[in-house]
């Protein structure tokens, strides 16, 4: 296997080259031209595809999971159609776009109810299954740990300006920069009860914020006290709470999907 680690291959021409089974990590493909290529069974994770144009393509089977802003297929922007169908399938999804404090409180209450059902499904499985990954995604336990990190980052670290809100079980996203003092234990296997106990504390922090909040307070500008999002501009309390709501909603769907496989 040829190793190109740390090399600058910008502007290279790959013509009639076999790259099947290759791995690309932290690779810049900005402005790359892919012409007459076979991408069968390609897996793309944590990619940014702004301004990508595909023409003359054949797509017999393609799945996309992610945040979609504009996706035009044969001249039709399908994102509004997808959003409407997702709202139809799960009416609670509409509540995840709150605009006032009461709406935020309702959104978190709904999330509590939905996650309670998901946790019940998880408890029905053997404990080892909760540490098992499906299709290289996070295990159920890792998912809950990551949500703990999201709460610590956006609620405690930004809204409450705590410079060190972390717990040893918090789990940053896979591509996050490694920062001294921020937990990054990929091998620990805590019990579900231990993770849920921490999750309960994180939820109590959110509730305390909501209890002291009014609609005017949602627009209060905030700045991150941790290294994460430190350069972000225009953050408000509402922005941070929406990020947490979105994380909770989407990761529960991922968890439900994987629990179905594990069952």
Automatic annotation (TrEMBL):
Q: What positions does the domain DinB-like occupy?
A: 111-254
InterPro entries tied to this protein: 5peptide_repeat, DinB-like, DinB/YfiT-like
Gene3D superfamilies membership: dinb family like domain, E3 ubiquitin-protein ligase SopA
Protein's name according to its UniProt entry? DinB family protein
**Which organism is this entry from?**
Nocardioides astragali
């Amino acid at each position: 296997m040829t190793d190109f680690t740390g090399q600058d291959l910008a502007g290279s021409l790959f013509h009639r080259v076999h790259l099947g089974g290759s791995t690309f990590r932290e690779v810049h493909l900005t402005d790359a031209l892919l012409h007459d290529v076979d991408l069968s069974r390609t897996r793309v994770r944590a990619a940014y595809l702004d301004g990508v144009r595909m023409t003359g393509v054949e797509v017999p089977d393609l799945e996309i999971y992610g945040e979609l802003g504009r996706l035009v297929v044969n001249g039709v922007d399908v994102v509004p159609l997808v959003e409407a169908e997702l709202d139809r399938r799960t009416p609670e999804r509409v509540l995840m776009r709150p605009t006032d404090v009461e709406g935020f409180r309702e959104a978190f209450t709904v999330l509590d109810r939905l996650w309670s059902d998901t946790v019940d499904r998880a408890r029905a499985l053997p404990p080892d299954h909760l540490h098992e990954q499906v299709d290289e995604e996070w295990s159920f336990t890792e998912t809950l740990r990551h949500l703990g990190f999201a709460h610590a980052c956006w609620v405690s670290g930004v809204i409450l300006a705590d410079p060190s809100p972390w717990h040893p079980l918090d789990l940053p996203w896979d591509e996050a920069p490694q920062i001294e003092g921020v937990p990054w234990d990929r091998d620990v296997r805590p019990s579900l009860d231990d993770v849920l106990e921490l999750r309960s504390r994180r939820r109590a922090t959110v509730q305390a914020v909501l209890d002291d909040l009014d609609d005017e307070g949602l627009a209060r500008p905030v700045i991150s006290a941790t290294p994460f999002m430190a350069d972000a501009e225009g953050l408000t309390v509402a922005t941070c709470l929406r990020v947490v709501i979105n994380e909770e909603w989407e990761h529960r769907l991922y968890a439900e999907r994987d629990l179905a496989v594990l069952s």
